[in-house]
Amino acid sequence: MGTHRLEVREVPGGRAFYIDGSLQFDSRDEAVYHEALALPALELARARCGRSLDALVLGGGDGLALKRLLAGPVRRAELVDYDPDVLGLARGEFRDFNGGSLDDPRVKVLARDARLHLAGSTDSFDLALADFTFPEDLEGCSLFTRSFFSGLRARLRPGGLFAMNAVSPDRFPAAFWAIYRTLASARLYPRPLRVSIPSFSAHGYGDWGMFLASPRPLKDAELGALTLGAGARLGREAFGAALRLRVSSLERGLPLSVVIKKPGDLLCLINMQEPGRPGGSAMADFADSAAARRLLSGVPGAENLVWPQLSSEWEVRLMGSLRDMDWELFLAELEKSAAALPGLALEEIRLLRQRLPELLAGAVPRADRAWQVFAMLMTVLVFVNMAYPDNAYAKGGYHSSRHSSGGSEMDFNLFIQTTRSPFHDKVFQGAAILDTLHSGGRVRPAQFVRYKAPDTPAGSGEVKEDRLYFALSDDSFVSKAGELFLAPGQQGWLINARPDRFSLLEKFRPEPLFDFYPEQTAIQSALGAIEMHLKAADKALAAYNRWLAWAKPAAPAFAEVRANVNEARNIENLRGSLDLASARLQVASAVPAAPEIPAGWLRLSPGLYLAENSGIVLVNRHGVLFSYPYREGAAAVYEQIPANDWLDSFVTAMLRAKSAQTSPADPMKAVLEGMLDR
Amino acid sequence: MKIAPLKKEHFKVWNDLVRATGGSGFMQSWEWGDLKEAEGAKVERLGIFDGGELAAGTLAYRVETTLGVSPLAMPHGPVLPWHDPFKAAACFALLRERLGAIAARTGAPLARLEPFIGVKPEFFGGLLRAPLDLVPTPTLLVDLGADDAGLLARMTQKGRYNVRLAERKGVQVVSTPGDDLTGDFHELFELTCARHKFSGEPVVFFRRLMAALGPAGLARIYLATYQGMPAAAAVAVFFGGRATYLYGGTSPFLRGTMASYAMHWRIMRDARDKGCGCYDLYGAAPTDQPHHPYAKFSAFKARFGGALFTPVGAHDLYFYPQLAKTLVSRLGARSQGAAV
Fold first, then answer.
1. Are residues B175 and B267 in the same domain?
2. Which of A365, A367, A325, A372 is nearest to A344 (CA)?
């Protein structure tokens, strides 16, 4: 295990504990977090077992979750935390907060890696809690894999309870729902929880996510009957509220979520702040398991159709209905009804009458105007059929949920039930993509960029014009021309990332300012995100194409269909750009070995470092280190490159961005500010 | 004869008529209508009176969504005197006219009829086979006209063996017309839905269903347990001469207990004792379609000795004036819509 920086900071009215700059708890509201983690599991285990309990706590070395367990009917508890320093703090500075829980005679404390402990232990428990730090590296992510959860399940007695701290369902929806999927795949039937913790919100962490799980599914009735301790902040109502998660989180997270088989699967999702849909206030109630499962299937309204296979059969039957209709009667009624419309409509109906035999045989070119009216009729009939929720053998249409959801999106589920993807957004429904969708559903104008690409023939003077119209994350974009651009610090600077170099661009200068060393982790992370988006795009396109084969000619009369046509075309374009970017990034290039960067250096952006002696160091595309004279009189350890205004501005922007991300209590903040005060 | 809306006081006489009509079923019962209303559907309850006596009628369900108006849906309906084709035709003529008037009022472009009969009557001549059915077609019907030994003898050898195996293993089956087993049932139902990748109704639907049908003895939830653990569960409906296996679920972890065989065996005997002549297993794959989504379920169901019955399926009665108006309104909207 690597060493971690532990900090206890005084805050007005309490103390806050940080590991590596990340808030673990604030004594003023830690009860909100630890009660939500421990109490529901404790009470459910108590109700299920009906006797005193054996409990396991993995992580949670601060002793605060343990304190909540010990207040219940726990006869024996094991606490396993790998960090002896945290355990030391728990027995010292945190004693006032945790009530000396680590020294309770019922407790055995082990300073050990949770994974190794699970693998080496044969003990079984009625209740287990996992209270790990945020998974921001491979080591942390290894505690969220299927094999880890399977190991944990093996330690739980039948009907045992498991509660765990996860990530924010709103800020990291794909990661959150991936953990959900992974728990389910390890047969730990999970229920998600969302908790608002003021100190977490103040740090920009968003509402926090947790899971309550068990090898034996948690029944709605069990959750409904849960009584929580009288002295606890977490009452029945608050628990009910915790079971309600934002629908937007599911919509954004589910399409990209995967079962976490290896730590990298989660890390990739954590690093990828996928473009999302607008937040919205619609909530999904996970106290109602069936309603939740329907949402999780990603197909609201799918109860209209028991099996997707049946849909092709009904398409054939619909065509049959059209052939057998009393067309004489219908056309007469059409002409009567259309009399008030402009002459063109009547003309089209006449044309329809004329071409009907061919149309019913499917022999008319689709551009034909008669075909368009015919397609509109088919679309009307599709809508009429889908409007009745009990069609196709569903005995309970469950109208109430349908009425409350509304909207046109779900109305098309029969044909496009897999289109819920990161691409399904108004941004992609216009005639062209002029905006970029950032995380949290924020829409920004797609940025134009002019640059000389490295493969431009020397002396040609050719300048590429491009548009950054797909955001892999808030600081990583794929351009229309299929280039990967990084926006370090989101300060307006762009890096054109290629496998052999990262070229720094400035918007007023097409020539690269500097070619940095190509960081392979950034490339791999982008490739992972691109791969996921390609899969989502393929799924969406397949479903759209099926639907539009019917409905496209009817688009002039149906705004919903027009939006679908645009969306399909734009997804196709985006897919092309993503594919091109993926191919470019995988081109084998002779990249020199990565330079060794001393441990104490601070990375400001790819290839740009603040050295321990407060010198600025740049790593060029060949992996060679250069000193940059950012401050007068700074010692040049490496060969010095001449200063220029552009690079000066870039270094200043990166220092500023880094300083903004650094906590005021972090000593590094003063160093960064000192650099900026040169 | 005259046609008129049914009122609350017709509740009993209507149910008696539906029970006595072989070509109908529980989805035309007064209670099912109540359930649909509780779910938000509009229910048109129409009766045809012959000399003051109720002779025919229908419950027609419709909903309004963002897509427009649904068909007027008549699962297991209309209720007609099928034994008297001339009278049935006359009743249907009256009904057709009234449905047309309802369509004109509500904008419904078609009515979907699906009586539980094997041959399309002549007076359905102008109706078209619907693209979607309201009730699964075909289905398996088990004849319940026999004692226990007779019923067992009609099962396949595997079916009989599994019924007895479940008994030897000590599988217990309990049932209730109330709500106390709904949670257990729903848990198994959900597991089954997830396993077969189809969406099922939420628990609130089953609570409504039991509240609407349970008190009258029309529905019971069955739960088969093995050593106290829920292993299989079903919702069975008993109406008229027919019992129906409407919903079911099994635990994937207790398949070896054959609990579902013990459960169906209990339902079959209960149905017979309630006077039902047959047990409808609610859907089966056509025998010539081994890859049909129902094929696996059908293999299981077939072990109880049922015979395949293929009803005529849903048929649509188009109301061309309404359909034309719907299309024309779209044609009009088109002139304001953007070109593609």
1. yes
2. A372
Number of independent structural domains in chain A: 4
Summarize pLDDT for B53-75 with one digit per residue, the tens: 999 999 999 987 665 678 899 99
Show the tokens assigned to A446: 């797609």
Given A247, A266, A296, the domain boundary residue is: A296
Q: Going along chain B, which residue ranges are E strands?
A: 2-5, 42-50, 53-62, 64-65, 68-69, 72-75, 110-114, 128-129, 139-143, 172-176, 219-226, 229-239, 242-250, 278-280, 307-309, 315-318
Sign of CA dihedral A5, A8, A9, A15: positive
Q: Which residue in B75, B129, B135 is closest to A317 by CB distance?
A: B129
For A543, the 3-state DSSP assignment is helix
Q: Where are the alpha helices (DSSP H) in A325-394?
A: 327-337, 343-360, 369-387
Which has more confidence, A347 or B94?
B94
pLDDT of A424 reads 65
Q: Which of A329, A376, A399 sits opposite B327 (nearest CB)?
A: A376
Last residue of a domain, one of A406, A437, A461: A406
Residue of A nearest to B42 (CA): A399
How close, in Å, is residue B127 to chain A by CA atoms?
9
**Is the CB of B131 less than 8 angstroms away from the CB of A377?**
no
Q: B121: domain CATH number?
A: 3.40.630.30
Q: Are residues A140 and A263 in the same domain?
A: yes
Q: Output phi, psi for A634, to 5 deg.
A: -70, 140
What are the beta bridge partners of residue A255?
Answer: none
Residue of B nearest to A396 (CA): B201
pLDDT at A213: 95
Q: Looking at CA atoms only, how far is residue B313 from chain A in angstroms?
A: 11
Look up the ipTM and state it.
0.85
- Rounded Cα distance between A568 and A573, Å, is 9
Q: What percent of chain B has pLDDT over 70?
A: 94
Cβ proximity of A547 and A415 under 8 Å:
yes
Distance from CA of A393 to the nearest CA of B (A): 5
d(CA A435, CA A443): 6
Q: For chain A, list residues with pLDDT below 50.
A: 1, 274-278, 297-310, 392-394, 397-420
- The per-residue pLDDT for range A268-307, each reduced to its tens digit, is 788 765 444 445 566 777 887 766 665 554 322 223 333 3
B148 to chain A, closest Cα gap in Å = 31
Residue A436 shares a structural domain with residue A382: no
Q: Which residues pair with A468 in a beta bridge?
A: A447, A479
Cross-chain Cβ contact A390/B75 below 8 Å:
yes
Residue A663 is classified by DSSP as -
Beta-carbon neighbour count of residue A235 at 10 Å?
A: 14
Q: Among A288, A376, A385, whose Cβ lies nearest the Cβ of B330?
A: A376
> What's the whole-model pTM score?
0.56
